[in-house]
């Protein structure tokens, strides 16, 4: 970010410790008479702080002032025709931030613009990374036409999702779009997200099987044994694994049945089936975790993965992604979550083995699990959370997703 004075992105927030800041917008008047124009020298830096293309706020100024605008992205030169006072443009920038940056729900600027298309109808929404909410913008504003014609450039992860032919599911159940890079200037064009999550899972399994037939997963080999004895054994395994996550060493060697982790696991199991709203239960669950004083502990993720989900985990997981996103704050947390996944599908719900790629995809798309962590986990068998054979089987099941990650990376390198 360029040197110079900075201000809060929300200038109505009078807090010198406010974490979201941007350079103070500056202007320079050039030309005379009919050729007079206002140049914004640091527009690129301001836009970078807002995570928006600099052409968007520049065009917004033009819409509000009824003036022509021009952009030279190569030379970072952004112009509004006419002579305009810096304070006036700063006020307009506040309007742009309110309408196209801030989350309507939590007023946090940590959002991405996403274009949804349904038939001929297109809608622009703000996808908040802070609270998980998706809120629409006023489609009556003239700037929306410009945004639809010049959609935001995708990030590296967005490109991978597009290569898989899928769209990330929002907390409310909406589907975000996929994009093609077809126009002459490299701007992404929007098309329908036609494939469902189930179709995605089938697709990546099929593609991986074509590359290496040995990676194909046969669900029949993992059919859940529902006999009373098998159920009893799985419940015993869960109780043992819960106890193994005591307050002792990181390897879980201390088996304390009275530890907060064991108590949390039992509380979740006793209450999860009476849930009327997963969102409400997420709040109650987080309060319970705070009550035990383990909301920042990585072992908490290990317990939640085992206790929260049932054989319907592939559908249940979407409702709890916001909770996991709030609690997973480090690589250590991610590894504990993956350990919980091993125990969930390897010990408690063997019928979920074929769904491992889909479960990983959900966490990956929600920015809860990082590519490097998944890859390292998937290529190193470990006995930390389950026995060696179970660890191998779970990682074997994850191979289609790992192959997809590797191929997407290769595609980006080629580009």
From TrEMBL:
It comes from the Eukaryota. Residues 254-415 form the W2 domain. Belongs to the eIF-2-beta/eIF-5 family. This is W2 domain-containing protein. The keyword GTP-binding applies. It comes from Agaricus bisporus var. burnettii. GO terms for cellular component: cytosol. GO terms for biological process: formation of cytoplasmic translation initiation complex. Residues 148-186 are annotated as: Disordered. Keywords: GTP-binding, Initiation factor, Nucleotide-binding, Protein biosynthesis. InterPro entries: ARM-type_fold, IF2/IF5, Transl_init_fac_IF2/IF5_dom, Transl_init_fac_IF2/IF5_N, Transl_init_fac_IF2/IF5_Zn-bd, W2_domain. One of its GO terms (molecular function) is GTP binding. Pfam families: eIF-5_eIF-2B, W2.
């Amino acid at each position: 970010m360029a040197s110079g004075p900075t201000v809060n992105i929300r200038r109505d927030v009078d807090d010198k410790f406010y974490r979201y800041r941007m350079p103070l917008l500056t202007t320079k008047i050039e030309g005379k008479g009919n050729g007079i124009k206002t140049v914004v020298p640091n527009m690129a830096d301001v836009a970078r702080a807002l995570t928006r293309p600099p052409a968007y706020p520049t065009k917004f100024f033009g819409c509000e002032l009824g003036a022509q605008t021009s952009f030279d992205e190569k030379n970072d030169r952004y112009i509004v025709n006419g002579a305009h006072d810096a304070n006036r443009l700063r006020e307009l920038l506040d309007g742009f931030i309110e309408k196209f940056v801030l989350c309507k729900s939590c007023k946090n600027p940590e959002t991405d613009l996403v274009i949804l298309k349904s038939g001929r109808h297109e809608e622009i929404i703000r996808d908040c990374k802070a609270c998980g909410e998706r809120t629409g913008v006023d489609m009556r504003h003239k700037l929306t036409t410009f945004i639809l014609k010049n959609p935001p450039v995708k990030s590296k992860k967005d490109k991978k999702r597009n290569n898989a032919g899928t769209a990330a599911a929002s907390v409310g159940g909406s589907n975000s779009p996929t994009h093609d890079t077809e126009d002459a200037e490299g701007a992404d064009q929007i098309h329908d997200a036609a494939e469902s999550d189930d179709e995605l899972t089938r697709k990546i399994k099929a593609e991986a099987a074509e590359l290496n037939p040995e990676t194909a997963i046969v669900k029949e080999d993992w059919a859940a044994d529902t006999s009373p004895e098998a159920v009893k054994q799985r419940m015993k395994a869960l109780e043992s694994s819960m106890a193994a996550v005591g307050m002792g060493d990181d390897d879980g060697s201390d088996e304390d049945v009275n530890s907060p982790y064991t108590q949390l696991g039992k509380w979740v199991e006793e209450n999860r089936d009476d849930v009327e709203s997963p969102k409400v239960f997420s709040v109650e669950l987080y309060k319970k975790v705070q009550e035990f004083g383990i909301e920042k502990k990585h072992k908490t993720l290990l317990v939640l993965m085992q206790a929260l989900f049932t054989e319907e985990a592939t559908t249940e997981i979407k409702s709890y992604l916001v909770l996991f996103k709030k609690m997973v704050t480090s690589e250590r947390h991610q590894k504990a979550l993956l350990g919980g996944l091993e125990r969930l599908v390897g010990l408690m719900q063997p019928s979920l083995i074929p769904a491992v790629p889909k479960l990983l995809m959900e966490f990956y798309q929600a920015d809860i699990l990082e590519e490097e962590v998944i890859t390292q986990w998937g290529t190193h068998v470990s006995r930390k959370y389950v026995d060696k054979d179970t660890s191998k089987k779970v990682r074997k099941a994850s191979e289609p997703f790992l192959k997809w990650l590797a191929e997407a990376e290769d595609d980006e390198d080629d580009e």
